[in-house]
DNA sequence: AAAAACATGCAATTGAAGTGCATTATTCCA
DNA sequence: TGGAATAATGCACTTCAATTGCATGTTTTT
């Protein structure tokens, strides 16, 4: 059994052909991925299947969904934890206005934010928009 | 000329009947508003007109659009600056999982966040989800 | 008053997300 | 091993917010 298959199994995901391919695709790309990105790369497969694949991955803690404000959902591997099974830490996301890519800055934890009395924080979404390292080097 | 009319004119917005009503509605509500909220309150008017009204307000700096992750856009008055004409400061938004309302926390500036080398920040969206003050008081 | 500019109403389109259901593949177990 | 049970896939269809095209109505300008 391949390493990928065992990662999927560790997350209670049956390693079908498409799932293995989607997982490989997510690994290969270092940026967050849309359903359209997947569809473009998998002529052979059906949009709905890819959709349900990624949702299965999400439900089982293998990827997390990213809302970067562009209106389309993106997904990225919880790579640091793909093996361990721990849930991915909260981190910030960066969306580049130039190349339109969104990346996880997993090493940048979200600072503590004080709220007015009575407000209880359960979850935080922090997205920074600007120019990414690749694009700023080209200026 | 009413005070409202002069606020609209200060933002180069012609004070039509609907625009005045929409502006009043935004003032009355202390939370961010969706297009559906507007439509529900304005039986007499057309969705498209309300949409274009709010977009005009936004373009002219009278309201700002809020993406709280629910999938539907919300809008709130740049009230602090409605008179001054200054652009609204960056601030965080709070979305209550209980009452589903979203509020601007205009007094809570977004802390400085350090980025890896090469990344340039132009804009920040920070949304905190949890329980708002009204809902936490009811527990 | 006529022309130009702008606002409004209604119909239609777009695009992402999600669901229903039939078909195919895999697993489970007698 | 041979099904029955369970899960995955494919295709059609729906939903919903956002947005646009165009005709009509209104206001402003000259
Ligand atoms: Mn991430
Ligand atoms: Mn706000
Ligand atoms: Zn970039
Ligand atoms: Zn609440």
- Name the overall outline of chain A: globular
Show the largest interface.
Answer: A-B, 33 and 33 residues
CATH C-level category of chain A:
Mainly Alpha
CATH architecture of chain A: Orthogonal Bundle
Helix-strand topology string of chain A: HHHHEEEEEH
- The N- and C-terminal alpha carbons of chain A lie at a distance of 46 Å
Bound molecules: manganese (II) ion, zinc ion
Side by side, the strands of the main sheet of chain A go 4-3-5
**Oligomeric state of the chains present here:** homodimer
* Helical content of chain A (DSSP H or I, runs of 4+): 25-40%
CATH topology of chain A: Arc Repressor Mutant, subunit A
Give the biggest sheet of chain A: 3 strands, mixed
CATH superfamily of chain A: Winged helix-like DNA-binding domain superfamily/Winged helix DNA-binding domain
Total strands of chain A = 5
Short description, anyone?
The first copy, chain A, is α+β, with helices and mostly antiparallel strands and 139 residues long. Chain A has five helices and five strands.
Describe it for me?
2 copies of one chain form a homodimer. With 139 residues, chain A is α+β, with helices and mostly antiparallel strands. The first copy, chain A, has one domain: Arc Repressor Mutant, subunit A (Orthogonal Bundle), CATH 1.10.10.10. Chain A contains 5 helices and 5 strands, in the order H-H-H-H-E-E-E-E-E-H. Chain A has helices at residues 3-10, 17-28, 35-41, 47-59, 133-136, and strands at 63-66, 74-77, 92-96, 102-105, 120-131. A 3-stranded mixed sheet of chain A has the order 4-3-5. A two-stranded antiparallel ribbon of chain A has the order 1-2. In chain A, strand 1 and strand 2 (74-77) form a beta hairpin. In chain A, helix 3 (35-41) packs across helix 4 (47-59). The longest helix of chain A is centred in the middle third of the chain and has 13 residues, at 47-59. The radius of gyration of chain A is 16 Å and the shape is globular. Chain A starts with a helix and ends with a helix. Bound molecules: manganese (II) ion (2 copies) and zinc ion (2 copies). One zinc ion (ZN) binds next to helix 5 of chain B. The structure holds a DNA duplex (30 and 30 nucleotides).
């Amino acid at each position: 059994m391949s390493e990928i298959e065992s990662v999927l199994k560790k997350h209670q995901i049956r390693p079908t052909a498409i799932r293995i391919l989607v997982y490989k695709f997510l690994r290969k790309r270092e940026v967050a991925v849309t359903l359209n990105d997947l569809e473009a790369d998998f002529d052979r497969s059906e949009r709905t299947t890819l959709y349900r694949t990624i949702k299965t991955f999400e439900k089982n803690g293998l990827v997390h969904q990213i809302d970067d404000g562009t209106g389309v959902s993106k997904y990225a591997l919880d790579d640091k934890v793909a093996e361990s099974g721990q849930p991915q830490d909260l981190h910030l996301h960066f969306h580049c206005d130039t190349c339109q890519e969104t990346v996880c800055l997993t090493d940048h934890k979200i600072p503590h934010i004080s709220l007015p009395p009575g407000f209880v924080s359960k979850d935080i979404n922090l997205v920074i928009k600007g120019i990414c390292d690749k694009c700023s080097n080209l200026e």
